[in-house]
């Protein structure tokens, strides 16, 4: 680990009084500063840490209004940037994340291979069996939507909150636009893609003991779907029409129009044949199926291009050369 890299940890604190002292005590000496963000915690976790933790690295940040996990992390980011920190790690205070993994998470950033790293609890299939089934199913569905909206097709486990980011990258994020609530982890991926930051998945294990998650998959799937569709539209517009133009810029709209035409013509012809009691002619079948086949091919070509165009050159390395 390079000695000149200053590392800080941000711990959003909301109903984690039972575990937070253990989390802090597990953070190694490679970390220079620990920000505990009391997000108007009903357990007054900020006061609890201040009273019972003697670690001189700890700084308490208090919110007068609950801002959600995203708002808490952004407050930690701001404080770290103000203090000149180089790499900012976010760890939950509920004991599910092993603080000893911090050097592992920051290494790709220090070595210049990534701008942002995030945990992936699905890499080891054996450890997946320990995950509650509702979380497994919910994360699988959310992961697919995140791939579409963020453009990071090789990532999984989007709600995993164990992350690390280079401060130079964090400075260029629109803090005021990033979702403050549970959509934070996936929304920040979309924001990172807009600046072409390199994101790397970090295989890890998660502990599931007596802690309770505040995230209820059944309550957020619909909300997340709407936000993913919005971010997907924004990303496509930014990357394929506003910032740059490519063959994929034409493949997507033409493919969608051909699919829409093929489906519309085919369904209307099918209804007409039922009403008349006569099978559709070969010509009508071809007029319906050919645009549909071509449209699917163009759509697959666009997806292939989108996957191939994921950011590969770290943003903070490009900035350092200017």
Question: How would you portray this structure in words?
Answer:
The chain folds into two domains: 7-240, Spore Coat Polysaccharide Biosynthesis Protein SpsA, Chain A, CATH 3.90.550; 245-308. It is built from twelve helices and seven strands. It has helices spanning 20-25, 45-52, 68-82, 102-110, 125-128, 133-150, 167-170, 184-194, 217-242, 248-276, 282-308, 315-320, and strands at residues 7-13, 33-38, 58-62, 87-90, 116-120, 163-166, 199-203. A seven-stranded mixed sheet has the order 3-2-1-4-6-5-7, with helices on both faces. Strand 1, helix 1 and strand 2 (33-38) form a beta-alpha-beta unit. Helix 6 packs parallel to helix 9, helix 8 (184-194) runs parallel beside helix 9 (217-242) and helix 10 (248-276) runs antiparallel to helix 11. The longest helix is centred in the last third of the chain and has 29 residues, at 248-276. The chain is elongated, with a radius of gyration of 23 Å.
What is the gist of this entry?
The chain has helices spanning 20-25, 45-52, 68-82, 102-110, 125-128, 133-150, 167-170, 184-194, 217-242, 248-276, 282-308, 315-320; strands spanning 7-13, 33-38, 58-62, 87-90, 116-120, 163-166, 199-203. A seven-stranded mixed β-sheet has the order 3-2-1-4-6-5-7, sandwiched between helices. It has two domains: 7-240, Spore Coat Polysaccharide Biosynthesis Protein SpsA, Chain A (Alpha-Beta Complex); 245-308.
């Amino acid at each position: 680990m390079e000695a000149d890299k200053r590392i800080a940890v941000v711990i959003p604190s909301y109903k984690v009084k039972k575990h937070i002292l253990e989390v802090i005590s597990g953070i190694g000496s490679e970390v220079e500063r620990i920000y505990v963000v009391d997000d108007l915690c009903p357990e007054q976790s900020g006061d609890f840490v201040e009273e019972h933790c003697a670690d001189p690295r700890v700084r308490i940040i208090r919110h007068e209004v609950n801002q959600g996990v995203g708002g808490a992390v952004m407050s930690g980011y701001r404080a770290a940037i103000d203090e000149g920190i180089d790499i900012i790690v976010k760890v939950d205070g509920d004991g599910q994340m092993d603080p000893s993994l911090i050097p592992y998470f920051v290494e790709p950033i220090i070595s210049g291979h990534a701008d942002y790293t995030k945990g992936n609890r699905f890499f080891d299939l054996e450890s997946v069996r320990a995950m509650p089934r509702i979380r497994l199913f919910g994360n699988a569905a959310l992961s697919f939507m995140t791939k579409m909206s963020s453009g990071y097709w090789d990532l999984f486990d989007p709600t995993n909150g164990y992350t690390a980011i280079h401060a130079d990258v964090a400075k260029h994020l629109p803090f005021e636009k990033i979702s403050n609530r549970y959509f934070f982890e996936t929304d920040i991926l979309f924001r990172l893609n807009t600046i072409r930051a390199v994101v790397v998945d970090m295989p890890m294990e998660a502990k599931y003991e007596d802690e309770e998650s505040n995230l209820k998959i059944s309550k957020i799937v619909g909300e997340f779907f709407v936000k993913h569709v919005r971010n997907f539209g924004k990303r496509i517009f930014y990357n394929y029409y506003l910032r740059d133009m490519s063959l994929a810029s034409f493949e997507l709209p033409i493919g969608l129009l051909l699919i829409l035409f093929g489906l519309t013509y085919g369904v209307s012809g099918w209804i007409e044949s039922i009403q008349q009691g006569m099978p559709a002619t070969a010509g009508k079948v071809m007029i319906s199926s050919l645009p549909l086949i071509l449209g699917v091919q163009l759509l697959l070509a666009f997806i292939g291009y989108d996957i191939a165009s994921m950011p590969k050159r770290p943003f903070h390395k490009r900035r350092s050369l200017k």
